[in-house]
UniProtKB/TrEMBL annotation:
UniProt name for this protein: Group 4 capsule polysaccharide lipoprotein gfcB, YjbF
Keywords noted in UniProt: Signal
Superkingdom of the organism of origin: Bacteria
Membrane-crossing segments per the record: none
InterPro entries attached to this UniProt entry: GfcB (IPR021308), YmcC_sf (IPR023373)
Amino acid sequence: MTRWRNLFAGFAALTFVSACGNAPDSQSTRSLLKSLFELSRTARSAPPQATLTPQQIEQILAATPNSVMLFTSEKTKSQAPIIQIERNLAYRTYATGGRQTVTIKNGFVTATRGLGGDLMSSEIDQSLALVSRRSAGQATRVMRFLTGDDQTFEYNFDCVISVQGGQGGLQGMREDCRDGETTFINTYAVDRNGRIRASRQWLGNFTGYVSLALLRD
């Protein structure tokens, strides 16, 4: 069992069902699914998580033409689809059924609302540029979180981006960041076009790590 393998399990069957249809990208979808599973084997192990059934995910995709992602919280062991409700240039805002929102820029989470201890804003362009190019290097990122007394606390992280294992056009990328005693490690699966198809990202001390998987762009 791996961190990413658990993430992909919830939507694997649905992707297969889509691939068996008449969509013009059936072969690429099938190939991508195989690559995601192979790449996930390089990630570290994690406890099992509850997943949505393929039938539930299929119903969600059928109900909306919008972009859909699968959002999994390691802290709560919960999983939910998030659907795009707004777009502002490169920034897409996704929402759960409970109106919690996650704002994403080309695969990187830049803000959250309604999760508790929210990520109010961030500056991630240096890390994003390296990860999207599937290149190693150094970067800085800023993350501003809401504290329990409604104040904003800012982290200034120094990050190292490294290239990990790859499979079938997907490249694993790792982001190691530190600000004093606070550290985190994010991982990304990036396709040949620089698009992040799946990731595991740290969203602060309160929320912890979440996994994101792109079901429909």
